[in-house]
Amino acid sequence: MATAAAPGLPTLRQMLNATLKELAAQLAARKVSSVELAQYFLKRIETLGSQLNAFISVDPERSLAQARAADALIAAGSAQALTGIPVAHKDIFCARGWLTTCGSRMLSNFVSPYDAHVIERYNQAGAVIVGKTNMDEFAMGSSNETSYYGPVRNPWDTAAVPGGSSGGSAAAVAARLAPVATGTDTGGSIRQPAALCGVSGLKPTYGVVSRYGMIAFASSLDQAGPFARTAEDLALMLNVMAGFDARDSTSLERAPEDYSRALTRPLKGLRVGLPAEFFAEGLAPDVARAVEAAIAEFKKLGCETVEVKLPNMRLSVPVYYVLAPAEASSNLSRFDGVRYGHRASEYTDLADMYRKTRAEGFGAEVKRRILIGTYVLSAGYYDAYYLKAQKLRRLIAQDFVEAFKKCDIIMGPTTPTAAFNLGEKAQDPVQMYLSDIYTIAVNLAGLPGMSIPAGFGAGNRPLGLQVIGNYFCEAQMLNVAHQFQQVTDWHLRTPPGFAQ
Length: 500
Ligand code: GLN
Prior knowledge:
The protein is about 40% helix and about 10% strand. By secondary structure, it is an alpha/beta fold. It has a domain at about 10-265: Alpha-Beta Complex (Amidase signature (AS) enzymes). Strands 1-3-2-4-6-5-10-11-9-7-8 form an 11-stranded mixed sheet, sandwiched between helices. Strand 2, helix 5 (about 115-125) and strand 3 form a beta-alpha-beta unit. It is globular.
């Protein structure tokens, strides 16, 4: 005999794999309330989430208050696409009343007094914050191992890293601890963890999403974007996140777009550019096979392939590791123990207070970046490193301009290998830096890029296909990804331990 289920429970089980549209329809039909949805995911975070360490903060009371407000909006008939939907936010976004740590001891006591633009947008849309996700300290890392709060584990294999720096968000979506999440991408931190966790993630064109209230790492590269299972969901999220904000001087003033508008467009005749540099030495055979199989699917959908060249791409990692630390060293100077965050408890004078505070507050990777950044900006080395890197950045961007004369979209691997093991690269920064070899050039050029699930490799760990669009072509990229997701089911797979 069936036991009586708690109210809404059978429906909630179906919610596990529901798209945002399906969730919104269930909410609108009162099959489930926003409060029940929030409780359901909070419970998953509490029970299943502990193995993954994907969250730094959860605050059920705050989440449920937002959910009750969302239910009132739904009852009043004023729901928007994301009203009542639980969202996990990377702990890099300042959220009023929430502990906002950026994965650092330096901010381990910082409760934000204000909302980032991204948070404000989600809140205005009626979405419910279910928690703040774990991340590499100040978004510096590719494995989530630099977090002061400990590493995140990959839901497909808890011996593996989830990728970084938005590893908590990617793992949370993969394990269905939240239907969707936000992240940021300075050199690959949305696309790389999306690939390694088997979810979809998009980094928009630089300037499309405001950086206001997003703790700065390398300001000329940082860009926020969404994580979800499907391209369709990413489009709905981008509709909420994108748009002009006068408080970010690099925010672009453009007419609002509906990023869902082109999802169903046929791909016949689309020219897919394949950069030779993406398929060269260093690419693991399982990744190469998955990318080739994905490209074969696109050909079946009517796409043509053309070879393109990105001759300066090989310089992108060294260029990035001059520019990003330079900007970081300047951005992180604000953490001085005076204004907010950690302060050493004992010191002799002001200089000693700065030194001790920063020595205690920052982890090794952050210190390494500050040292490199300060060095390349110093009077004697500026021309040799910083200025040279800026010139090369221009050449890298120019390669893409040339490539997009021959093709509509570029495809390749997101990462050189599937997820590696925890600890495997933690002691070797250069090996770690190379895991972003296919993603970094996109940030240097300011282009939009995404990663979508494209199969499984060694050890049954997920693999991603990277899709790079021309400036402001997010709707087209989402169209390409959506069409792929109509003929493949990689994005629908759930890690075995999290399918219930
Ligand atoms: N892994 C790269 C780094 O460590 C990129 C990080 C990011 O995109 N935030 O800097």
